[in-house]
């Protein structure tokens, strides 16, 4: 296990941050606009989100780089600025973190379907390698591969991230199957956990896909199939459309009521995904105080 992770685990539980997308929208991001573009043109807005999580006592905060791979950025005309988008994204979060929090930089899926031949394994490896190296240059303390539904893509991203020498979290999204314990590609929690462990992840996790109440069983399944630490970022319930707006109805207090059950199920890192905010992180800290 990477020494950074070992030191953190000794302080278990570790509270991480919450959602970034919804917080950036509050800061002025327009629907359909590239969140990552803000790293270049409005870094102060991005830093305000990062700082809000530091102030809420997140031990680890992420970065505004989820869609920072070249395939996602080229849809916004930013394919030639991959290195700047990611390096600056890491620098912004590091600035906000100061000496209070660590920064684990976010790497999301490519949006390309490997099994459909949209992209080759070599192209994916190169894209994730460029992103991971830029995040490392920006000073990231670790990397988080998140919201992955394709296990092969997750393993390619893991290979790219491990080359940086930084600790790497591999986090899948389970939002399919009768029990919501499979990825959209039909991969079970057990299979993903075992293969990501064998492929050299430092932490195994799950984020997004369902409300926090569903993560206790996911956590239990992961714990049964790996000796690695577990990373959990659940949503604030299932999204509902109210008057044309996407709404998450789980309150921060309800969300925080799952902190102890998650710990009991084996979670080491606990934070939030869609619909959560700094208030949710404060509630988690209070629940575990």
What's the quick description here?
The longest helix has 17 residues, at 121-137.
Q: What does this protein look like?
A:
With 289 residues, the protein is an alpha/beta fold. Helices cover 42% and strands 17% of the residues. Helix 9 links the parallel strand 5 and strand 6. The radius of gyration is 17 Å and the shape is globular. The model has no long low-confidence stretch (mean pLDDT 96).
Structural features:
289 residues; two-stranded antiparallel sheet; TIM Barrel; globular; 42% helix; alpha/beta; 10 strands; eight-stranded parallel beta sheet
The shape, in one word, is globular
Average pLDDT = 96
Question: Any idea what the radius of gyration is?
Answer: 17 Å
Structural class by sheet pairing and helices: alpha/beta
Main β-sheet: number of strands, strand sense, barrel status?
8 strands, parallel
Give the CATH level 1 class. Alpha Beta
The CATH topology is given as: TIM Barrel
In total, the number of domains comes to 1
Q: How many extended strands?
A: 10
List the helices and strands and how they pair.
Layout: H1 3-9, E1 14-15, H2 21-26, H3 38-41, H4 43-55, E2 60-61, H5 70-74, H6 82-97, E3 102-107, H7 121-137, E4 142-148, H8 151-162, E5 168-172, H9 189-198, E6 203-211, H10 215-223, E7 230-235, E8 239-242, E9 245-248, H11 252-256, H12 259-264, E10 269-272, H13 278-288
Parallel strand pairs: 1-10, 2-3, 3-4, 4-5, 5-6, 6-7, 7-10
Antiparallel strand pairs: 8-9
């Amino acid at each position: 296990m990477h020494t950074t992770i070992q030191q953190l685990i000794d302080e278990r539980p570790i509270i991480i941050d919450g959602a970034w997308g919804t917080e950036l929208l509050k800061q002025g991001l327009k629907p359909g606009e590239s969140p990552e573009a803000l790293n270049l043109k409005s870094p102060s807005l991005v830093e305000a989100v990062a700082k809000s999580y530091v102030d809420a006592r997140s031990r680890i905060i992420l970065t505004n780089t989820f869609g920072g791979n070249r395939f996602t950025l080229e849809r916004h005309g930013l394919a030639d600025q991959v290195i700047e988008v990611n390096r600056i994204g890491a620098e912004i979060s590091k600035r906000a973190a100061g000496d209070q929090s660590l920064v684990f930089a976010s790497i999301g899926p490519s949006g390309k379907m490997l099994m459909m031949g949209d992209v080759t394994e070599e192209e994916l490896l190169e894209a994730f390698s460029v992103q991971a190296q830029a995040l490392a240059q920006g000073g990231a303390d670790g990397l988080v591969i998140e919201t992955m539904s394709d296990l092969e893509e997750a393993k390619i991203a893991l290979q790219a991230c491990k080359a940086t020498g930084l600790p790497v979290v591999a986090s899948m999204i389970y939002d399919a199957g009768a029990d919501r314990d499979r990825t959209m590609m039909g991969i079970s929690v057990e299979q993903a956990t075992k293969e990501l462990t064998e492929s050299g992840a430092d932490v195994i996790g799950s984020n997004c896909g369902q409300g926090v109440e569903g993560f206790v069983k996911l956590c239990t399944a992961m714990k049964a199939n790996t000796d690695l630490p577990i990373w959990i970022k659940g949503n604030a319930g299932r999204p509902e459309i109210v008057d044309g707006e996407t709404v998450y109805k789980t309150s921060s207090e309800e969300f925080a009521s799952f902190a102890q059950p998650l710990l009991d199920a084996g979670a080491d890192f606990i934070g939030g995904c869609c619909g959560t905010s700094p208030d949710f992180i404060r509630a988690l800290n209070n629940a575990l105080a």
